[in-house]
Amino acid sequence: MAALALGSVTTAVAMGAQDDEWWPGRHMGGTAWTEPVGPVGATGHMRHMSHAFVDSEYGFLVEMIAHHEEAIDAAGELARSDRAEMRAFGERIVESQSAQVEQMEGWLDEWYADRSGEVDYDPMMRDLADLSGDELDEAFLIDMIGHHMGAVMMSQQLLVRDLADHADVERLAEDIRDEQRDEIRMMQRWLRDWFDTGWGMGFSANRGPGPRR
Fold it and tell me: Known PANTHER family for this protein (predicted)?
């Protein structure tokens, strides 16, 4: 079931980006995970894609809150970036995702008050606190592309599998999917333009990481 859902999700995501040079997840063929490969030593920052598998509206909300909170913390580090574009992007993530977290927490209080709201979240991004300059920007972009891909997958899975019990949650999932898919494209362009590199992710049920393109 998980492999089937992942295939449906990544197909739907890729269909919206066929003009891109590389779309994360386009070539996923199984459930194994691999870390993004990058010139800044991107090891261990994308632990796994288990957060991308949701089986209920409640599960989507608690996972997405934890996922957003990690992104908010990482985006706050961009206040130290030398690039105005990155500082503005960090501010946008903090503002947008903080508002969405507040909205989702309100829904949990209203609809699922009898449940804990807790989730065992394994971080997907590395610690950026000691990085600066180009190293900070490149590490953030590499990590956040994979992080955004997880949110797109979760949102699309909720929609494709018709898991939402409330129209408000369905609309939020659509907003997250569309917003973060556009941001992935933007971050891919920045990696290419500023660092002459890209972000690739190869999945296979029987083998390890595929080559980065």
Answer: SLL0788 PROTEIN (PTHR36933:SF1)
Which has the closest alpha carbon to 186: 37, 86, 91? 86
Angle at 145 between CA 94 and CA 132, to 5 degrees: 65
Half-sphere exposure of 25 (CA within 13 A, CB side): 30
Q: Where are the alpha helices (DSSP H) in 16-83?
A: 57-76
Spatial CB neighbours of 31, under 8 Å, sequence gap ≥ 6: 2, 3, 6, 203, 205
Tell me the per-residue pLDDT of 35-58, one tens digit each, with 9 for 90 and over: 333 333 344 434 445 557 899 999
pLDDT of residue 53: 85
Q: What would the pLDDT profile of 73-132 be if each residue is shown by its tens digit? A: 999 999 999 999 999 999 999 999 999 999 999 999 999 999 988 888 889 999 999 999
Task: Report helix, strand or coil for 26.
Answer: coil
Closest CA to 53 of 14, 100, 7: 7
Q: What are the CB-based long-range contacts (under 8 Å, 24+) for 95-99? A: 96/179, 97/68, 97/71, 97/72, 98/68, 98/72
Tokens 């010139």: give the residue. Answer: 39
Q: What is the pTM of this model?
A: 0.75
Does domain 2-195 fall under CATH 1.10.760.10? My reply is no
Which residues, in sequence order, are CB contacts of 48 under 8 Å at separation 6+?
33, 122
The CA distance from 66 to 70, in Å, is 6
